[in-house]
Amino acid sequence: MAENFTIDAQPRTVIGKKVSRLRREGLVPAVIYGAHVDPVHLQIPYRPLQVMLMKAGGTHLIEIGVDGQSHTVLARQVQRDILRGDILHVDFLAVDMNQKISTQVPIHIVGESPAVETRVGNLTHALSSVTVEALPRDLIFEIQVDISVLKEVGDSIHVRDLNFSDKVTILNNDDELIVHVTALPQVVEEVETLQETGAAEPELVRREREDEDEE
Length: 215
Fold this sequence. Notes:
- The structure is a single chain.
- By secondary structure, this protein is α+β, with helices and mostly antiparallel strands.
- The protein has helices at 19-24, 46-56, 114-117, 186-197, 200-214; strands at residues 5-8, 10-11, 27-34, 37-45, 62-66, 69-80, 87-94, 101-110, 121-125, 129-134, 143-146, 156-158, 169-170, 177-183.
- The longest helix has 15 residues, at 200-214.
- Residues 199-210 have low confidence and may be disordered.
């Protein structure tokens, strides 16, 4: 079950280009929206919002208190400055605790692959997150994938191999690849062999001498 986070906000009357003034005052413009609610325009102190978003991500429920009311939301979109990465605006989705919602959940790799540890192959990541559907109270904040089962080249883990609560439904295709072990590039092996035997250097010297003879 996802952990809840709380933060206080103030109603916002400044909209449009004038919100730059709020940012100079250390406030971030935000909005709460949803299918069955009127938009609520907010302004939130920058630092508390920054800390909360780092912990809550897009999968933890957030309780926003404003004007004596509490809104249960998910952080849906965070707009940031392209260069500095500063938070410019946040869209929060109001949730109905009795209605299922879908959201992106990150995949977290755990363990070590024997095939990679013994340098038999490389680990290739094909999927970094999956889309899940659940009631808000049953949302999960990450899915752990144990790669210790990947022992040989060709071993792989697909969406169908994931294990989680039956209260959560993954909307991705079962055949989608998450991680797999690929063979080391053949060209790398050939170069390493030449370096070990010293075969490359005499060939280079021979060609240089031929060039000198031609001069």
